[in-house]
Design goal:
heterodimer; A: 11 helices; about 70% helix; elongated; B: elongated
Chain lengths: ~280, ~290
């Protein structure tokens, strides 16, 4: 595990990288918004007020109102909650799957490795969000299925990263030593291999958060993800698309929030990559 | 080839991963027991899975496999829509190659100037931009506010401009990044410095020596991205109501036409694999170093 010193070094490197710093701040802001949503949202995101439907932004409703007269700002704030909670669950699930599959493939090698990697190749042969669409098509919409779909769609990346790390760690003498004193394969994997391979997994997780958030809102936009009336950026944008001609303001704010969050995770992930990867340091 | 078979198996199993009885789901709510039995027989759902898979694959080619909704042979439903998707992806890749390569060349030649920073910001925006939001923004600007272009549907040239730009933005950002990196690598080679030292005009060096040698990775990326666009078109097609295959798959999910979903997803994935394969082959043909090894 990274000790206190390596943590401070990482933090120092990030704060020197302007892009990474901006990314980190954006991520922190959106996480805070998601957690504090009930406290900071000015209105109830589900309260309908048909008399003030499709209002343009004003002091009363900073981002305007949607077709049901709901406050768009409050829905954008609650949308952060929906997106971040689902994507976090999906990415954690994907890490678990990826670490298990990648460790087994890299540690044992041979036929097991070959079979697992071919299977990942097949999963990765579905371009873009097509695999997630296929899984949701089979399982049906709903939050739990969305998490499963995105986890399955994301885990091959983690498995690959994990496998690559395991292959280099495996050749270390301390692994051989552990084998020699009779430690079991399982215990070696859990005690020595996984902790030493975490850095690239953390980088990958940050970047995959961006993809997961995009996929959630993409599927929701198609009507295959989070169902209305739940506040979600993609769902709200799908509704905005219908009323774009008469209320273009609806199309702006949920998308802006989505774009900023994704960019934040991308910048932060790239920065972490530079900070945790000493080989790239002198770039 | 094993990947293609694997893709077809996964696409086939979509219907069988559905929790519950597929026959009942196809029959819909309020179906009688006889209806469900009839559907089970009609689609061969009573047969063993392996046999069903072979019937499925054979049925696609022999036109025996029909859309659940329209009862027409499935390929006849899919191919016209797929050609719309290919059309969109082609226009998109042409636009994004043009933007990406120009931006990449300029930013590599004028390294660390404002052009270079602009290109960096552009690629950052390109990879983080939700494709359907970009579509919505372009509709707001060019269809609602300016009224220059239609907001959706298919028709003349004006209908394809917005969807093609939407679909291609991320791709042009990726091509720009690749072009810049590839150009910089070649620019640092000794023979480029030698050519400059011989007094050959800078512009000529860049286009004749540098760009030509930097082109292989750029072409590879363009090829790979084209395959990607075929799959990525789902969202763009939905925003603009473009009658392509991705949108058909999504519509079929809602109308519970599982055969259309299975075959549609399979066709997109297989063409993605084939495009990648073609890129590998072309790569080997273009790069003599790889041919020998």
């Amino acid at each position: 595990m990274p000790g206190k010193t390596s943590l401070t070094i990482t933090f120092k490197r990030i704060s020197r990288n302007k892009g990474a710093l901006i990314g980190m701040i954006i991520v922190i802001v959106f996480v805070a918004v998601a957690i504090l949503a009930p406290l900071i949202a000015p209105k109830d995101p589900y309260k309908q007020d048909l008399l003030s439907s499709l209002e343009a932004p004003s002091f009363r409703h900073l981002f305007g109102t949607d077709i049901f007269g709901r406050d768009v700002l409050s829905r954008v704030i609650y949308g952060a909650r929906t997106s971040l909670s689902i994507s976090l669950a999906a990415v954690l699930f994907a890490i678990l799957l990826g670490v298990v599959v990648g460790t087994i493939a890299g540690y044992f090698g041979g036929v097991i490795d070959e079979v697992l990697m071919r299977f990942l190749d097949i999963l990765m042969a579905f371009p873009d969000i097509l695999l997630a669409i296929a899984i949701v098509a089979a399982l049906g919409p709903g939050k739990a299925n969305l998490i499963i779909a995105i986890a399955i769609y994301s885990f091959p990346q983690f498995a690959r990263v994990m496998r690559a790390s395991v292959l280099t760690i495996k050749t270390n003498e301390y692994i051989e030593a552990a084998r020699a004193i009779g430690e079991s394969h399982l215990s070696i994997m859990i005690r020595y291999i996984v902790p030493n391979a975490l850095a690239p997994i953390i980088v990958q997780a940050t970047l995959r958060m961006a993809t997961a958030i995009l996929t959630i809102s993409g599927l929701s936009f198609l009507g295959l993800g989070v169902k209305p009336p739940e506040a979600e950026w993609g769902t709200d944008l799908a509704m905005a698309r219908v009323y774009l001609e008469i209320a273009p303001h609806l199309g702006i704010f949920p998308g802006l929030a989505l774009f900023l969050t994704v960019m934040g995770f991308n910048l932060f992930g790239d920065g972490l990559n530079d900070a945790l990867n000493p080989r790239l340091k002198d770039r | 080839m094993p990947v293609i078979i694997g893709v077809s198996i996964i696409s086939f199993s979509i219907m069988h991963m559905i929790p519950g009885d597929p026959a009942r789901i196809i029959a819909g709510e309020g179906a009688t027991k006889q209806d469900i039995e009839a559907i089970r027989l009609k689609y061969g759902l009573d047969k063993p899975l392996v046999e069903q898979y072979f019937r499925f694959m054979k049925g696609i080619i022999t036109n025996d496999l029909r859309s659940i909704k329209t009862e027409r042979p499935i390929l006849r439903e899919i191919l016209p829509r797929f050609s719309n998707t290919i059309q969109l992806a082609l226009v998109s890749i042409v636009i994004s190659s043009f933007i990406g390569i120009s931006l990449g060349i300029i930013s590599s030649v004028r390294r660390n100037t404002w052009v270079d920073s602009f290109a960096m910001v552009f690629s950052l925006i390109g990879v983080s931009m939700p494709i359907f939001w970009l579509g919505i923004l372009l509709i707001i600007i060019f269809a609602v506010v300016l009224g220059w272009l239609p907001s959706g549907g298919k028709g003349g040239v004006e209908h394809i401009i917005l969807p093609a730009i939407t679909l291609g933005l991320a791709t042009s950002a990726i091509i720009a990044r690749m072009t810049r990196a590839s150009m910089l690598e070649v620019l640092n080679q000794d023979y480029v410095r030698t050519a400059r030292a011989f007094g050959i005009n800078r512009r000529k060096v860049i286009y004749k020596y540098v760009l030509r040698n930097a082109l292989i990775p750029i072409v590879t990326v363009i090829g790979l991205q084209f395959g990607y666009l075929l799959g990525g078109a789902v969202l763009t097609e939905s925003v603009f109501g473009w009658p392509g295959l991705g949108r058909y798959v999504v519509d079929s999910i809602f109308s519970r036409d599982y055969i259309a979903v299975q075959v549609g997803i399979m066709i997109i994935a297989i063409s993605f694999v084939l495009v990648n394969l073609a890129v590998d082959i072309v790569y080997a043909l273009v790069d003599p170093r790889l041919r020998r090894g």
